Request: fold
Amino acid sequence: MRRAMAAALLALVLGGCAVVPPAPPAALELPRQANWTLQGRIGVQSGEQSLSGQIHWRHRVESDEVLMTSPLGQGVARIVRDAEGVALEMPNQPTRRAPDAESLTREALGYALPVAGLTWWVQGRPDPGSAFETTRDAGGRIEQLRQDGWVIDYLQYAADARPRRLVVTREGLEIRLVADRWQAE
Reply:
């Protein structure tokens, strides 16, 4: 009995001296912005199709307007989400409508753009409405996010801790996004 107590005491004392790795620094969590505007560059690769150009995204709680233009500034596609659903406008084509952006872009473009998820992912956050897994860097920022079948790799953060460069992939679709200017409103 005495030996067992001595062993337990020794284990407790030695355990108190053990080196415990420091916890990673707390993530630089920015407050979620309800309204924001993002301007940057986008590249979409799906099989043989590819698109690159500028993106101008104006997000409001009740609406989104995403304008994608060619490198020369010509409108390629405009997606508008409001209380009545989502509309897609493309040059020389009738406006298409659907209840959500993913089904609308899948029908019109042949691949689904995850506009609902991107609303969160461009802010460096998972969509709170579905399960996710994250890997964080030494600074506590999200390095990789997996959600709804998508893999989001955060390649660079801006000085204000907002994601600057990210790559979103799923089943043969790759979306590269560079945020050149971000404005909370």
Q: What stands out?
A: The chain is about 15% helix and 45% strand. The chain has one domain: 33-184. The longest helix spans residues 2-17. The mean pLDDT is 82.
